[in-house]
Design goal:
It is built from 11 helices and 11 strands. It is α/β, with parallel strands linked by helices and 313 residues long. The protein starts with 12 loop residues before the first strand and ends with a helix. It catalyses: (R)-pantoate + NADP(+) = 2-dehydropantoate + NADPH + H(+).
């Protein structure tokens, strides 16, 4: 029997990836009255429902009873929206077994750091619509089902393939997620987010520092070099980025998250695989395609790979 949602009805929106961002979105959508479920990992042995404990920026505490959906046809066949919030390198493997079970008109939304997985997914979608998204909202997972929001941020969504998301579902997402916007051209927004990640993530991981340390003058040549290489590669891909605006955005994010440790820093610290392939590695793959040299990104990529190998990943 399908898991039950609000008022006993099956959830029509599911989130694949119950990390900090996935649970943050689950809270925001539930607060907006949506019927939301979380897709359980195969063989996880979880109960039918869990209690999501969420603390907001103003320290208000919320508890939501959320349906856990097994990855079978009965549980996911009637979904209208599937939000995918797993790590970038997990996207294809996590989605591939689910795709045949989803309704033909189920809209997929990918939200992760870095870029690239959508290119692999496109041939597998069988006519389904695909939306790409990025968020700079901050959240910290305190326990398996306990998340604290650590910072506000802009969330951007936009169509990339297949049928465009319906006005109804677009309005639901934009109404539920604070400071969110629909972008008719999502790829420039994703490249801008990639630029921020390509600087902050590897540098904080390599130099074992908080984000705010990157404001030091000694980091300026590295910051600027990463951005300059990325701008050149993006231009070859048909994406025009303004160097001054990109530098200001990077400075703003560093200032707003000064006390934070980046996700790549945390991944290395805990012996987990990083998303270097989908961040600086993506820049390098596009650079190679266009015959462009990107030595600074290559240097950072190789150092993270070396550190990752030392941690056993």
């Amino acid at each position: 029997m399908a898991a039950q949602g609000v008022n006993g009805n099956p959830p029509r929106i599911a989130i694949l990836g119950a990390g900090a961002v996935g649970q943050l979105l689950c809270h925001q959508l539930t607060q907006a009255g949506a019927r939301v479920g979380l897709i359980a990992r195969p063989g996880s042995g979880q109960a039918d429902r869990v209690t999501l404990d969420f603390t907001s920026l103003d320290n208000s505490r919320y508890q939501h009873s959320v349906a856990l959906l097994p990855q079978d046809a009965d549980a996911v066949k009637d979904l209208d929206l599937l939000l995918v919030c797993v790590k970038a390198y997990q996207v294809v493997d996590a989605l591939t077994p689910l795709l045949p079970r989803l309704a033909a008109d189920c809209q997929l939304v990918l939200m992760h750091n870095g870029m690239g997985p959508y290119l692999t997914l496109l041939p597998k979608l069988a006519g389904r619509g695909l939306t790409l998204a990025t968020t700079s909202q901050g959240a910290l997972r305190q326990g398996q089902w306990q998340v604290t929001q650590t910072g506000p941020g802009l969330t951007q969504l936009g169509w990339i393939h297949g049928p465009v998301m319906s006005e109804q579902h677009r309005a639901l997402l934009l109404g539920a997620i604070p400071d969110s916007q629909w972008c008719e051209a999502i790829l420039p927004a994703l490249w801008q987010k990639l630029a921020v990640n390509a600087v902050i993530n590897p540098l904080t991981a390599i130099y074992e520092c908080r984000n705010g340390e990157l404001r030091r003058e000694s980091f300026r040549p590295l910051r600027e070099s990463v951005l300059q290489e990325l701008i050149q590669v993006a231009a070859a891909d048909g994406i025009a980025l303004d160097a001054h605006a990109l530098g200001e955005r990077l400075a703003s994010v560093i200032a707003l998250t000064a006390n934070n440790y980046s996700s790549m820093h945390q991944d290395l610290a805990h012996g987990r695989r990083t998303e270097i392939e989908e961040i600086n590695g993506f820049i390098l793959s596009r650079a190679a395609l266009h015959g462009i040299a990107a030595p600074t990104n290559l240097r950072l990529y190789r150092e993270i790979k070396r550190l990752q190998a030392l941690s056993g990943q």
